[in-house]
Recover the amino acids of this structure.
């Protein structure tokens, strides 16, 4: 009698354990499927297929069999980066022959407009910034990895040393002429220009080394801005002294 009761309880326990294992297995399977779905959603944009490469990386938009097109030798720029110099790019060598290749030159991290060839002439706009090239290949059925060249650092522009201030002299009466005595700089600039100002505002057409005081100048201050330039040097703008033009007193 006791044996029959014991055997009956054992059978019920075994059945309960088996059912529990089935439930645990079902839950684990659902969790695994949910994890896989979540992972796939993270790596795939709507409407795109997802590719998992041998490296374990997933890349949207590429079939699973897509191969990598990558540089075995990076592109290289030859040159020193001096102003006016022509830099020349030696293209990258790729593990497979690309269908097409494009080039984009950069200065200070920003693309240089129209600079898409194998050569580039350095200008003052690149002074003080690094120059490099991004070479981008394309080939049907391949996942193309762009290649970045070495950096060429362009030197900062040199600066003028001022030896003497620019000054203006003359009688500050209506109709009288004011004259500029140029500043002295080292090295000597290749070009010097002037802009006369009335109370800090440019006077239209007043760009010579002399200026005739006009009626509208009465009660204002007159000065000149001298601008000097030289290739390889930072443009320098110098203000002259100011001359006060007395207001016209009515008789």
């Amino acid at each position: 009698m006791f044996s029959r009761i014991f055997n009956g309880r054992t059978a019920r326990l075994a059945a309960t354990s088996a059912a529990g294992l089935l439930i645990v297995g079902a839950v684990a399977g659902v969790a695994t499927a949910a994890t896989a779905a979540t992972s796939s959603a993270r790596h795939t944009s709507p409407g795109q297929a997802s590719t998992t490469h041998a490296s374990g990386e997933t890349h949207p938009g590429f079939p699973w069999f897509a191969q990598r097109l990558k540089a075995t030798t990076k592109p290289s720029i030859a040159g020193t980066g001096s102003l006016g110099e022509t830099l020349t790019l030696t293209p990258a060598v790729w593990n497979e022959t690309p269908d097409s290749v494009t080039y984009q030159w950069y200065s200070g991290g920003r693309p240089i407009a129209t600079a898409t060839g194998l050569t580039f002439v350095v200008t003052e706009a690149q002074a003080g910034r690094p120059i490099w090239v991004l070479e981008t290949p394309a080939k049907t059925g391949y996942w193309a990895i762009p290649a970045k060249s070495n950096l060429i650092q362009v030197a900062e522009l040199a600066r003028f040393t001022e030896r003497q201030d620019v000054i203006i002299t003359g009688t500050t009466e209506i109709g009288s002429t004011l004259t500029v005595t140029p500043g002295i700089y080292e090295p000597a600039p290749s070009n010097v220009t002037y802009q006369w100002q009335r109370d800090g505002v440019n006077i239209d057409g007043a760009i010579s080394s002399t200026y005739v005081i006009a009626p509208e100048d009465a009660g204002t201050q007159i000065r000149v801005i001298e601008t000097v330039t030289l290739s390889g040097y930072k443009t320098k703008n110098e203000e002259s002294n100011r001359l006060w033009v007395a207001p016209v007193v009515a008789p």
